[in-house]
Automatic annotation (TrEMBL):
<dbReference type="Pfam" id="PF00296">
    <property type="entry name" value="Bac_luciferase"/>
</dbReference>
<protein>
    <submittedName>
        <fullName>Alkanesulfonate monooxygenase SsuD/methylene tetrahydromethanopterin reductase-like flavin-dependent oxidoreductase (Luciferase family)</fullName>
    </submittedName>
</protein>
<feature type="domain" description="Luciferase-like">
    <location>
        <begin position="15"/>
        <end position="294"/>
    </location>
</feature>
<keyword id="KW-0560">Oxidoreductase</keyword>
<dbReference type="GO" id="GO:0008726">
    <property type="term" value="F:alkanesulfonate monooxygenase activity"/>
</dbReference>
<keyword id="KW-0288">FMN</keyword>
<dbReference type="InterPro" id="IPR036661">
    <property type="entry name" value="Luciferase-like_sf"/>
</dbReference>
<keyword id="KW-0285">Flavoprotein</keyword>
<keyword id="KW-0503">Monooxygenase</keyword>
<dbReference type="InterPro" id="IPR011251">
    <property type="entry name" value="Luciferase-like_dom"/>
</dbReference>
<dbReference type="InterPro" id="IPR050172">
    <property type="entry name" value="SsuD_RutA_monooxygenase"/>
</dbReference>
<dbReference type="GO" id="GO:0046306">
    <property type="term" value="P:alkanesulfonate catabolic process"/>
</dbReference>
Length: 321
């Protein structure tokens, strides 16, 4: 099973954006045999949240081999040419380690901040990925879209990976699954996707035809994760900071259909996660592999969890690889 470590980019009041803890976690994950470090994106978060693309560049410089992934960039918020150029250069600087994962986004505040109409997000998403993919793979691009028009455009340098870095897309509705199969190379789930829903969602995603130029069909599950000597130890370390994070999510996702999943109890969370003793975590990973997962992204550190607890859990997961 391929494992990714979802890094905590949340800031604290008065913190300078140094990311020392994230760098330490990334280096340990690299030594432990993880396949990726994975970054998310958030805006208008009062305590602070480290910006995704500059953080990815910083972590690329602080690691050697581990894959660098996003899950995900809110594509409709970006100028697609700037996004294509920036991500291409990250791939070059990292020696070809980038996997670019995207999402549509859901917070009205973030769309307003960037001057983007939320009703246009699907059209902007598709146009952005079309331009990005073409700039990464073609010598010269002319494109007339609803939001962007370019003439005889090219990137130099293009991404190091040939033909291009892999693209992931996250979401749960049928339209997202179809779009992922058509435009991307892997589907990433939500962290709160129920296990009971996953088999049908995976089957539906795999049923849609692949688009021209896509590079495969990865199923990447995002799960809460914590590996401790016993399940009781895992609960003591994780429950309080994870509950604080979920309380915040109930506000952020007030317009989303899955908001209620962040008010569920501990047993419900464990039932859709990789949490417990080493034997229990190994059993959960095997369960997801049998379900059809090609990789699992583990969110080990909610904001507020001590660094020492995180490092011990990363090492424990490494021992399962």
């Amino acid at each position: 099973m391929r494992l990714g470590l979802y890094l905590n980019l949340y800031g604290t009041p008065g913190e300078r954006p140094a990311l020392e803890d994230a760098v330490e976690q990334a280096r340990l994950a690299e030594q432990a045999g993880f396949d990726w470090i994975v970054l998310g994106e958030r805006h208008l978060h009062r305590p602070g949240y480290h910006e995704i693309l500059t953080s990815l560049t910083w972590l690329a410089a602080k690691t050697d081999r581990i894959g660098l992934a996003t899950s995900g960039i809110v594509a409709p918020l970006y100028d697609p040419v700037v996004l294509a150029e920036t991500l291409a250069h990250i791939d070059v600087l990292s020696g070809g380690r980038l996997t670019a994962g995207f999402v549509l986004g859901y917070r009205p505040e973030e769309f307003a901040l960037y001057g983007v109409t939320q009703a246009e997000r699907v059209a902007r998403f598709e146009e952005s990925l079309t331009i990005l993919t073409r700039l990464w793979t073609e010598d010269e691009v002319t494109y007339d879209g609803k939001f962007t028009s370019i003439r005889e455009a090219f990137l130099s340098p293009r991404p190091l990976q040939n033909p291009r870095p892999r693209l992931w897309n996250g979401g749960r509705v049928s339209a997202v699954l179809e779009r992922t199969a058509r435009m991307c190379d892997g589907w990433t789930t939500s962290f709160n996707e129920l296990d009971s829903d996953l088999p049908s969602k995976i089957a539906e995603y795999l049923s849609y035809p692949s688009g021209e130029g896509t590079l495969g069909r990865d199923v990447i599950l995002c799960r809460e994760g914590f590996n401790a000597p016993t399940s009781q130890d895992a609960r003591r370390a994780l429950e309080e900071p994870l509950r604080d994070l979920y309380d915040a999510y109930t506000g952020w996702k007030r317009t989303s259909t899955d908001a209620s999943r962040y008010t569920q109890g501990w047993d419900d969370i464990v039932a859709r996660s990789v949490i417990g003793s080493p034997a229990e975590c190994a059993e959960r990973l095997a369960h997801y592999e049998q379900m059809g997962a090609d990789g699992i992204i583990l969110r080990i550190q909610p904001p507020g969890m001590p660094q020492a607890d995180v490092l011990r859990s990363i090492e424990a997961f490494g021992n399962l690889l």
